[in-house]
Amino acid sequence: MMFQGLEHTAIASPDPKRLAQWYCDHLGFHINYTYDVFYFVKAPNGTMLEIIPSEGPFERPGMKDPGIRHLAIAVDDFDAAHRALQEKGVKFLTEPYNNQGNRLVFFEDGDGNILHLIQREKPLP
Length: 125
Description:
About 20% of the residues lie in helices and about 35% in strands. The chain is of the alpha/beta class. The strands form two sheets. The chain has a four-stranded mixed β-sheet, covered by helices on one side. The protein has a four-stranded mixed β-sheet with strand order 5-8-7-6, covered by helices on one side. β7 and β8 (about 115-120) form a beta hairpin. The protein starts with 8 loop residues before the first strand and ends in a 6-residue tail after the last strand. The relative contact order is 0.18.
């Protein structure tokens, strides 16, 4: 097959090293590769983000503005993960809620990008 899927998603940050470390400290990722001022962080399930230097002012996106709107973080124990982020002072954008048997809550990373926790009742097909 020619196309295998997403290798990584890039996030532009005014301080890539700080944001990469935020993903390590808050979500259990680890920095798996760096070059110059570029940082790749890898999640326990193998997915990766590349944190790159940004240019220009940050404009906080709305939850439903056009474009990429959030990164979903899969968790095994929603309540424990939510509590751990609360204890680390993460800014939440919603209260936890249920949607079709799934538990969700939206929050911001260290730069204000939108993330959400999700614990699915059944995996997607």
